[in-house]
Amino acid sequence: MTTTQIVSHVKQFLNEKIHNELVPALEQLVEELPDDLVEFSQVERGLRERFLKLAGDMLRGWTEVAITRIAIPSCSSCGKPMRHKGLKPLTLATTLGHVRLRRPRYRCEHCKRDVYPHDGCIRFLSNGVSLALGKVVCRMSADKPFARAAEDLREDYGVRLCKQTIEHVAESAGKHINTIEDRRRETIQGLSPRERLSALPTATGTPGELAVACCDGAMIHAGNKPKYLKNKADQPGWYEVRTASIAIGDPVQGGSESSGDASEMPNSDRPERGHHFRMNVLRTRSFARFESVADVGMDMYLRACEVGFFDAPLQCFLSDGAVWLRNIAEEHFPDAILILDWYHVTEYVCEVAALLFGQGTAQAKRWIEGRKAELWDGRVGAALCAITRQRQRDDLTRQQRDALDRTYTYLDGNRDRMQYPRYRELGLPIGSGRAEGLCKTLVEGRCKQSGMRNWNPSGAEGILRLRAARHDGIFDQTWSQYFASAA
Ligand SMILES: [Zn+2]
User: Are 108 and 73 in contact (CB under 8 A)?
Assistant: First the structure.
């Protein structure tokens, strides 16, 4: 038989199927549909259900007769030709329901290895789902808990998958991407600075006026320790996932309401003292990983190259002032203006005031307002004097004294990064939202909901990878980049 003849056999089978099964089913459907416009929603529902069912039937019929012959594969270990061992059944969940199909198995008798050459095109990462359903599962799992994804999948696609399967599919997808990206990073880390220049990703698209990098940590409860912590005991506990975001865009002038399509930075600043930073984001790349500072730094740097961070005339790096973050900024973002996140500053001030004067008291509020006004105007010295005056009181408890010392050290050590009037004049964000918001939406919004404990670290990272792609608005792009060939 020639291929044309076999193909026509497939077509012939499907044509017969249409006439024998689908047409009667459609006629039955027409028979059942009401005539009256007021039944619109019933008609819509009925058509959708029936056509989806028919599409599933077609897919099942097609897989029964589709050609399974394939060139004899060679063993990937020893190179010898493998032997055909008959057709093996497989049940696959698809966007059109479950399908049972049979595909050939090949075996290397020498290495005792089995392969299913079709699986690369049929199954998503060796899971029991198709590539198309895998994408739906991943998108849903990025947005919501697995149990909710299972519900929605049943509701929207009529597909029943247990939440363990959903979890496994989504985590395997995210891990797959992380593995490839880790390898890419390691390759670049192994190059000399000269060699790196040609290996770095380059930006495409409109350049932005303003580039913002920010990084922070968030805690996730994991059932075992993340891999990069080599010397720590392997036990359940709270581990820090490092979260970063790189964005380029154009500042939106003034504190006006968002104009037109201007997409705001996620969780943009609350208006503070009449100042409301907004940015029309052109491109953003985010990630959340359990990894070393060196790797976080390089990951931030690579993403910065990707969005065109270094082409922007104005670059800034927002952080809570932690030393590891300052090191990343100095190594990879030497031209960026380092800004101490305003939100973190006010946290210190509020904590001290609560300890000195009592939480929420009028005196505490007055003291907070005084310090915030000074810091807002860039008068760090005045704020430090006020702290020193409190420090000289002789009725202080140990706890109050410690909090005062801590705040003094924090503000004094970050003076250079607290020139808020200058930042505002330049149109830079000063924080209170950006980094905090990122951790909240990216990490806590998905991994820290009630009952979510004992994450497997690499599984959580997998989900967060998918979530970052959603957050950055590039889920489809990421998907085709990593799974287009689905091999
Ligand atoms: Zn072999």
Answer: no
Distance in angstroms (rounded) separating the CA atoms of residues 298 and 157: 40
Collapse the DSSP code of 128 into the 3-class scheme (helix H, G, I; strand E, B; otherwise coil) and give the result: coil
Cα dihedral sign, 378-381-387-389: negative
Residue with tokens 């973002």, as numbered in its chain: 333
State the pTM of this model. Answer: 0.88
- Rounded Cα distance between 208 and 246, Å, is 12
**pLDDT 10s digits, 361-381:** 999 999 999 999 999 999 999
Q: 108: CA distance to ligand 1 center in Å?
A: 5
What are the CA-CA distances from residue 31 to residues 22, 23, 26, 57, 202 (Å)? 14, 12, 9, 20, 59
Compute the distance from residue 483 Cα to the ligand 1 centre, in Å: 27
E strand or H helix that includes residue 286:
strand 279-289
| Separation of alpha carbons 138 and 125, rounded Å | 12
CB 420 within 8 A of CB 375: yes
CA of 70 relative to ligand 1 center, distance in Å? 18
Other C-beta atoms lying within 10 Å of the C-beta of residue 275 = 16
Query: Using CA atoms, how far apart are residues 252 and 256, in angstroms rounded to an integer?
Result: 9
Question: 75 CA distance to ligand 1 centroid (A)?
Answer: 5
Q: What is the 484 CA–ligand 1 centroid distance (Å)?
A: 28
pLDDT in tens, 117-170: 999 999 999 999 999 999 999 999 999 999 999 999 999 999 999 999 999 999
Cα–Cα distance for residue pair 426/390, rounded to 1 Å: 34
CA of 153 to the centre of ligand 1 (A): 40
Say if strands 210-222 and 314-319 run parallel, antiparallel, or are unpaired: parallel
CB 273 within 8 A of CB 169: no
Predicted local confidence at residue 35, as pLDDT: 94
Query: What DSSP letter does each residue of 91-124 carry, written as one string?
Result: EEEETTEEEEEEEEEEEETTTTEEE-TTHHHHSS
C-alpha pair distances (Å), 224 with each of 174, 235, 290, 452, 455: 19, 5, 12, 14, 8
Asked if residues 202 and 222 have their Cβ atoms less than 8 Å apart, the reply is no
Ligand 1 midpoint to CA 83 (Å): 11
**How many contiguous H segments (helices) and E segments (strands) does the chain have?**
19, 8
Q: How far away, in angstroms, is 76 Cα from ligand 1 center?
A: 7
Q: Which residue is it, tokens 């970063």?
A: 244
